Amino acid sequence: MELKNIRNFSIIAHIDHGKSTLADRMLEVTGTIEARKMRDQVLDNMELERERGITIKMQPVRMHWHDKMLNLIDTPGHIDFSYEVSRALKAVEGSLLLVDSTQGVQAQTLTTLAMARESGLVIIPCLTKVDSPLSRIEETTLEICALIGCDEKDVLKVSGKTGEGVPELLQAIVDRIPAPKAEEVNTKTQALVFDFSYSNHKGVIVFVRLFGGRIAKGDTLSFAASKQQFQALEVGIFAPEATPQDALEAGTIGYIVTGIKQPGIASVGDTIISTKNAATGLPGYSQPRPVVWASIYPESQDDFDELRMALGRLRLSDSAFSFEEEVSGALGRGYRCGFLGMLHLEIITERLRREFDLELIVTMPSITYEVETRQKQRVVVYSPHLFPDDGTVLKVYEPWITISIITPERYVSVLMPFMYDHEATVGSIDQFGDDRVKVEAVMPLRELMRGFFDGLKSLTSGYASVAYKEGELKEADVVRLDIVIGDEPQPAFTRIVSRRRALEEGEEFVERLEKLMPRQQVEMKIQAKAFGRIISSRTMKAFRKDVTQHMYGGDYSRKLKLLGKQKKGKKKMRENATVNIPHDIFIKVMKETD
Description:
Blueprint lengths: L5 E7 L6 H11 L17 H6 L6 E7 L2 E7 L7 H9 L3 E7 L6 H12 L3 E7 L8 H12 L7 E2 L8 H11 L13 E10 L3 E10 L1 E3 L3 E4 L5 E3 L2 E5 L3 E4 L1 E3 L3 E5 L13 E4 L17 E7 L5 H14 L4 E7 L3 E8 L2 H15 L3 E3 L6 E5 L4 E4 L11 E16 L3 H10 L3 E7 L4 E9 L7 H8 L5 E11 L2 E8 L2 E2 L5 E4 L3 H15 L7 E7 L2 E8 L15 H21 L6 H11 L1
Parallel strand pairs: 1-3, 1-4, 4-5, 5-6
Antiparallel strand pairs: 2-3, 7-8, 7-16, 8-15, 9-14, 10-11, 10-16, 12-13, 12-15, 17-19, 17-20, 18-19, 21-22, 21-23, 23-25, 23-26, 24-25, 27-28, 27-29, 27-30, 30-31
């Protein structure tokens, strides 16, 4: 097909703003899928996506509207996947800005919209859920107009549920979004990788936008960043199922079967080039950098090899997370894993449980710190139990974030103490639309993992939306909090906490352990240690057998003699006792902490 008849576009939307539902109607109206084969969230292939109603993996699809070819990339809406979304936006010429007419513009929408504008995309504003009795069409339309500087008549109104306005939207895509540039046809082969998947039989399958040249089955290609060569075993398009083609032409979106079965070779943002006319990689590529770290252990050490295999398999379809083996005295062998954010961590662990039937122990998530010791050495710390002792630390640096919150105006008064509690510095509070405000602030990244999202949703009755982006490293006032049971430190329970909250958190953790820990044969102390001293302590009384129960009479001194003998035995036992924490205690503590 000629380039002038091709339109490549994506969808910008906040979570749960009807993006996948609208995509369903577009597939239906264009006849891409027969009505009898239609189902909800047809582009969401993972069970987890359907269950939660969110998009996790990108899914492209080709549609035809009259004589035009429309290539849609359905992208995730969560902030954790912002880099992947930015690469998908580079693969298209235009984007639909979807805004839920019942909720208005949300924080994540602003972040993704800024990325689309930086990429020079044509933006088509669109209101969804206009059939809902709760929709605020006029107010939301004004919000959009003020946001992108368009006229009210440019804002389209659609309903993904009923299909209202979808034909007009398709025509607007054809009329407003430009075709790929004509010069792409005769240039060197360059294909941007915006996502990929893995098949046991075919290996890694990369999803690409071809910016130049032509790629046919059997061509010898290579990745510009990883330098790995491969042969195109199959090329094709998504309609929406994978449909083999003879070749992919410039300006189109499709897939390439690489046959590669090693992790770490394919990555989002890389460029595929031809070995015959080697071109340079497209700009903007960067290695995904983990933001959140957590250790994953199998409940049974017999499953360790299976966990290693499962992590390797997931890495083939998701290069954004990393893992390396580690050993814990309490939990055995496991893996220290890096993730893009809290949702990414939750998705990976849930996939391990569902797809590989693994029972897991996941430690408390933490972030990376840079520590300057008194010997003037600067070390990077990924795990809390490796954090230096308080007396050896000169300075600690941690990542901060810039956070944007959009919330109804009535919640601002209760939001301020909440932000202070999470060490946030509020920069500005601006009126945003009708009865809503936008709060800009900076705060430590570690505070997001201390129940920030749940607390914010609870405080604002679910009305607030959040977006954040990483900022610079700043000096941190934190300390390592150790949990000591029976004079033995427990690395699995170690965490890094704010110095001002160390006493409170130490007390809470010790109380929780005291309730969960079973009594032992000897008296045992549960202590929290920070600042080089014990800051909280509880003593668990030992089991005590009634050694005098068989005695019904006689002189009382006989009973005292037996009790004294028992006391000496307990003392001797305490001197030789070792800490024996049942395995399920670690599981319960981690689950309660989550």
